Amino acid sequence: MAQPLAPNLSSEGEARLPGLLVVTGLSGAGKSTALRALEDRGFETVDNLPLSLLTHLLETASHSRPLGARPIAVGIDTRTMSFDAEAVVAKLAALRDGGLNARLLFLDCTGGELIRRFSETRRRHPLAPDRPASDGIAREREILEPLRRAADTLIDTTGYSVHDLKAAMTSRFGRSGSGGLTLTLMSFGFSRGVPRDADMVFDMRFLQNPHWDDALRPQTGRDVPVGDFIARDPAFAPAFERIADLLTVLLPSYIREGKAYLTVAIGCTGGRHRSVYVTERLADHLRAAGAQPNVIHRDLPQRADSAERRSERADAEDKAGSETLTAGLSH
């Protein structure tokens, strides 16, 4: 039976929502998606005002917002007229000194992923309209560095789908006001990289892989036959119990230390079978213990595309090596 966790383990975000949230980051990192998600959560949102009007809005928010009014989310980036990163940082500091709960969210992303996104959408980078996108990304990263350093919250969207970013915004800026630790369980595939914002990572590639069963390959870790296959692996139960017990022990300690967010990432090769099943089982275990984890399956929407097929050779080598090791240990 799962041991009860501390009562303030939450999936709904901040104990005290910001009266003002400034959303910024690299072009292509998801600012528009983040603002739409905030609007869905009850924020009043505005994007890309000239800096002079932005300053007026911030001053108005600090002096005339009635108690209980909807929080404001303002999007700014290098396209904003008269943009000055240092000036934005200074204005936010002044607003905080004046008593406004003002916070800064920075959306980051790797250069390679941003180049891919610009290529797929056929958009030009705003700072490199007639040059390679990489030039604009490098320049923009330099310009935005003061905001990145000053950010209260940083979200790396490199491995995120639109759905994942919306879920991340909901978990951090939901309007329940319950406070506590926001726990996210994320399945992923090593073939697409380890999540950059993971606090803890567990590798499930030691389990037998349903990918090699033709009947199970098209299914996912949410399907009963796949779950039964994984659960029958003699290595599953003892490993799962130890991971679950470890989290049950650690989470109350993180809460006592005041940690606001914890992301636990569970990986396998493609992110569709073993990691998904274990993530769902861990979520059930922690809910029974009183937690309300957010669950994100980062790579579940992906099918067995060319990138995943390229990973099959590595997975086959892992499988062969595991069989050799098992045979050696049995003698």
TrEMBL record:
GTP binds at D77, T78, R79, T80. Residues 296-321 have a biased composition (Basic and acidic residues). Pfam families: PapZ_C (PF22740), RapZ-like_N (PF03668). Keywords: ATP-binding, GTP-binding, Nucleotide-binding. The keyword Ribonucleoprotein does not apply. Residues 296-331 are annotated as: Disordered. ATP binds at G25, L26, S27, G28, A29, G30, K31, S32. Residues 182-300 form the RapZ C-terminal domain. Residues 20-174 form the RapZ-like N-terminal domain. GO terms for molecular function: ATP binding; GTP binding. Gene3D superfamilies: P-loop containing nucleotide triphosphate hydrolases (3.40.50.300). PANTHER family: RNASE ADAPTER PROTEIN RAPZ. NCBIfam families: PRK05416.1 (NF003828). This is ATP-binding protein ManX. It comes from Pacificimonas flava. The lineage of its organism: Bacteria, Pseudomonadati, Pseudomonadota, Alphaproteobacteria, Sphingomonadales.
